[in-house]
Amino acid sequence: CSNTSTISITRLAEGLKRPENFCGMHFFNPVHKMALVEIIRGAKTSDATIATAVAYSSAIGKTPVVVNDCPGFLVNRVLFPYFGGFMLLVRDGVEFTRIDKVMEKFGWPMGPAYLLDVVGIDTANHALEVMSQGFPDRMKYDFKTAIDVQYAAKRFGQKNGKGFFSYRTDPKGKPVKEVDGEIAGILKPIVTSSATVSDEEIIERMMLPMIFECSRCLEENIVESPLEVDMSLIYGLGYPPFRGGALQTADAWGAGKLVTLADKYKSLGKMYEATNQIKKQATEKKGFYK
Questions:
Q1: Angle formed at CA 280 by CA 279 and CA 285, multiple of 5 degrees
Q2: What does the domain layout of the chain look like in residue ranges?
């Protein structure tokens, strides 16, 4: 098995004599708190190998979800369009601290800027390269992003004490988030407008890319069911449990509203394009769970 979060399981298995015995087991940080394990099926992975990995995950108290191989698998694949929405908002002049507050009020345990600091700006930069190669129409950006400029400045987040925020260590050895005096100057060159964006629009621009990518994963059979998508986001990312997951949120908003919002934000690119699945739901007045 491999615990990679982005490298193709099919590609890793190419040099093996018994590729049918190989799969991905992607744990989420912090491992002692996050219940999810993605079990990734490569092109030649056998059903017996998947069954063994699922049984082992359950035996150690984790919640396994089986996904097919693709860049980012399931959770990172749908997380990076969410980060994409964040980077577009920063480019358009919205303060990252405001975005964090709005998304925390929505129910996320931490906003996207803080989450990137915890993940690691360097880790996010590497993952973004993989995602941009895999999905260039949606995840390759034609502008310098907040990740780009911080990576260039060697600001890697919590791990080296400087990111969107700065960090000091408390007496118990835990990092404490603080306002950073340098970050405004580092981000200033990448801000290209000063758009007026409401809190509701921040939520829409953050959540739509994630919802649409979740739908694409279902369309492409990366994962079997809406329930597995939502469970993965709650247990792997800390998606607000009271909202039930991204696809429960989609149903709460309604497919008709999602299609309308896709048209509202079409100038932002393919990330905001409604899937055929969601367009069909809008026509038939259905949802992911109804």
A1: 100
A2: 9-68, 75-100+108-190, 199-284
- Same fold for the domain at 9-68 and the one at 75-100+108-190? no
Q: Mind listing the pLDDT tens digit for each residue in 177-228?
A: 999 999 999 999 999 988 899 999 999 999 999 999 999 999 999 999 999 9
The residues near 288 (Cβ < 8 Å, ≥ 6 apart) are 215, 218, 226, 247, 248, 250, 251, 281
Residue carrying the six token digits 């739908």: 215
Using CA atoms, how far apart are residues 73 and 63, in angstroms rounded to an integer?
A: 16
For residues 23 and 65, what is the distance between their CA atoms, to the nearest angstrom? 13
**Is the domain 9-68 a CATH 3.30.420.40 member?**
no
Show which residues are catalytic: 26
Separation CA 153–CA 171 (nearest Å): 28
The domain 199-284 having CATH identifier 1.10.1040.50: the answer here is yes
From the CB of residue 104, how many other CB atoms can be counted at a distance below 10 Å?
15
Per the confidence metrics, is the pTM higher than 0.90? yes
Buried residues in 112-135 as b, exposed as e (16+ CB within 10 A): bbbbbbbbbbbbbbebbebbbebb
Average confidence (pLDDT) over 120-143: 95
Question: For 75-100+108-190, CATH number?
Answer: 1.10.1040.50
pLDDT at residue 237 greater than cutoff 90: yes
